[in-house]
Automatic annotation (TrEMBL):
The enzyme's E.C. designation: 1.-.-.-
Annotated Nitroreductase domain residues: 24-158
Protein name in the entry: Putative NADH dehydrogenase/NAD(P)H nitroreductase KO353_15335
Keywords recorded for this protein, A-Z: Flavoprotein, FMN, NAD, NADP, Oxidoreductase
Entries under Pfam families matching the protein: Nitroreductase
Named cofactor requirement(s): FMN
Family per similarity comment: Belongs to the nitroreductase family. HadB/RutE subfamily.
Length: 197
């Protein structure tokens, strides 16, 4: 069984970590993005389905393709981010189950021909992987700025056209400019949202 992480690590991952809204301009090397995914892939998903797909936009040209699909309030910070990750969910994830979940040869049949179950499972598990994505970025010394606030159909056409992938959310990555970080917003206490039964 794993030991409890030290408080400094918990601070990095949770307590002092913030959503980034501006960037220092320090670049993010490609090998850091490889290391990020190499952490994310170990997070659990139902039947090991791993529906997350990621496009890392690292060039100005790639980010400009995204610009027309962003809500106005997200344009400046996104264009300035060293990396913009487009996180998608593959609705054909079940095609890979014979490889990813080999101990149950019938797993693919659980989903075939069941579009609602496919959509629900892909969204839930890709979102779960999206949470791991943010934690992995923080663990590697990056700041993350996950976002809604975009035209998902436009992003799908721009980056996933002709595939079975649909966009889930966007996440800017880099090193945050503290002067552009918003004050910490309130959080619910345990007793407000949790119940022991």
């Amino acid at each position: 069984m794993a030991e409890r992480l030290p408080d400094a690590a918990l601070d990095t991952l949770f307590r002092t970590a913030r959503t980034a809204n501006g960037w220092t301009g320090e670049p993010v090397p490609p090998e850091t993005l490889v290391a990020l995914y190499d952490l994310v892939k170990w997070g659990p998903t139902s039947a090991n389905m791993q529906p997350l797909r990621v496009k890392f936009l690292v060039t100005t040209a790639a980010k400009e393709r995204l610009r027309p699909h962003l809500s106005p309030g997200n344009v400046e910070k996104t264009m300035a981010a060293p990396v913009v990750a487009v996180l998608g969910q593959d609705l054909a994830f079940y095609e890979h189950l014979p490889r990813l979940f080999p101990h149950n040869p019938s797993a693919r049949s659980w989903f075939e021909g069941k579009p609602e179950l496919i959509r629900e499972s892909a969204l839930r598990n890709a979102s779960l992987q999206g949470g791991y994505f943010i934690l992995a970025a923080r663990a590697l010394g990056l700041d993350a700025g996950p976002m809604s606030g975009f035209d998902s159909e436009g992003v799908d056409r721009e980056f996933w056209q002709g595939t079975s992938v649909k966009t889930n959310f966007l996440c800017n990555l880099g090193h945050a400019d503290p002067s552009k970080t918003f004050p910490r917003s309130p959080r619910f206490d345990f007793t407000e949202v949790c119940e022991l039964l």
